């Protein structure tokens, strides 16, 4: 008997190789996959504007990063003593205005340089709903808990969502012609919009990503939405809020990502990195014991062997700690 409709095995025609640099932008699910990649030997840069959800905000992020836009103090507003940018997550906010400006511009400059050499860009869309300022109709990426009357909400229809995504792809291709692009739709449900509205929103995004994949070369789709909502399809794979996939679900998606998106050599590198990552995070009961010294020596030997076999491997700060 079958108890679930498992998504059949699939394989992308182009694969991520060891040493490929990967830029990621989009919803919080982007950060789950980005963290897994960063922990397993890939050089990544994720969400230079912070977590963003809708196609227009992703487009704004790509434009800022490819054009190396410089934000000024006029691009920020103050609320409850804290300075914010409408286009950035609150992790860029600050008590002092110059600090907020500096954080935003440093992130954009870093992303600009990274994108120039990136081999892959992963964009994860979360919602078709866009919040606009009532004062000037501009779209915002984050409402920063401002009063509801500050905004009006509008859902992008499938054509508008596809057009925005196409502009993002065009900017990336103009800036870095060799880049490959992987699109995905976040499985996180935006339940606050209502279940019917959430499904309409996701449908617009699904139409948008598939229309781009059909039209463009080297633009691919990874079905994270389907893996969680159709393959797993059970509330036991969600957190207590019933909208965010739990760790078991994200690890399942990561497993399917490895199998379908990473080359065989990249998968082998990931297998070699995983136990070292675990070992590096180990906290010894007695760090001065002989057993721990032997444990550290074995880890250094394994890391050296990994670097000989995979010279492209990118060592995260955790892995670098093994060498000390």
Précis, in short:
This protein has 324 residues and is of the alpha/beta class. The chain has helices at residues 28-39, 55-67, 97-117, 158-175, 195-215, 224-232, 247-261, 264-280, 290-309, 317-323, and strands at 21-26, 43-46, 76-79, 82-85, 120-125, 129-133, 139-140, 151-155, 180-185, 219-221. The chain has 10 helices and 10 strands.
Highlighted features:
single chain; 324 residues; Rossmann fold; 2 domains; 10 strands; globular
Describe the structure.
The protein has 324 residues and is α/β, with parallel strands linked by helices. It has 2 domains: 21-262, SGNH hydrolase (Rossmann fold), CATH 3.40.50; 264-324, no CATH class. The protein is 47% helix and 14% strand. The chain has helices at residues 28-39, 55-67, 97-117, 158-175, 195-215, 224-232, 247-261, 264-280, 290-309, 317-323, and strands spanning 21-26, 43-46, 76-79, 82-85, 120-125, 129-133, 139-140, 151-155, 180-185, 219-221. Strand 1, helix 1 (28-39) and strand 2 form a beta-alpha-beta unit. The protein is globular.
């Amino acid at each position: 008997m079958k108890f679930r409709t498992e998504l059949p095995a699939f394989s992308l025609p182009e694969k991520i190789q060891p040493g490929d640099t990967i830029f990621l932008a989009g919803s919080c699910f982007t950060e789950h996959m980005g963290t897994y990649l960063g922990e397993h030997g890939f050089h990544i840069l994720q969400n230079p504007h912070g977590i963003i959800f809708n196609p227009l905000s992703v487009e704004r992020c790509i434009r800022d990063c490819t054009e190396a836009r410089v934000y000024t103090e006029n691009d920020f507003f103050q609320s409850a003593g804290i300075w914010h940018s409408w286009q950035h997550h609150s992790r860029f906010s600050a008590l002092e205005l110059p600090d907020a400006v500096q954080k935003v511009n440093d992130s954009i400059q870093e992303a600009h340089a990274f994108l120039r050499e990136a081999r892959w860009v992963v964009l994860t869309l979360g919602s078709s709903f866009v919040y606009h300022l009532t004062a000037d109709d501009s779209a915002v990426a984050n409402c920063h808990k401002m009063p509801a009357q500050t905004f009006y909400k509008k859902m992008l229809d499938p054509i508008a969502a596809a057009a925005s995504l196409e502009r993002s792809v065009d900017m990336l291709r103009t800036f870095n012609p060799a880049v490959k692009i992987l699109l995905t739709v976040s499985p996180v449900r935006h339940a606050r919009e209502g279940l019917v509205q959430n499904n309409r929103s996701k449908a617009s995004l699904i139409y948008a990503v598939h229309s781009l994949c059909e039209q463009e070369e080297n633009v691919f789709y990874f079905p994270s939405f389907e893996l969680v909502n159709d393959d797993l399809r059970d509330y036991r794979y969600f957190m207590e809020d019933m909208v965010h996939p739990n760790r078991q679900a994200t690890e399942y998606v990561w497993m399917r990502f490895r199998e379908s998106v990473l080359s065989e050599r990249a998968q082998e590198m990931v297998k070699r990195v995983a136990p070292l990552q675990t070992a590096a995070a180990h906290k010894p009961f007695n760090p001065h014991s002989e057993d721990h010294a032997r444990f550290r020596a074995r880890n250094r030997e394994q890391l050296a062997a990994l670097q000989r076999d995979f010279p492209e491997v990118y060592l995260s700060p955790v892995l670098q700690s093994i060498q000390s």
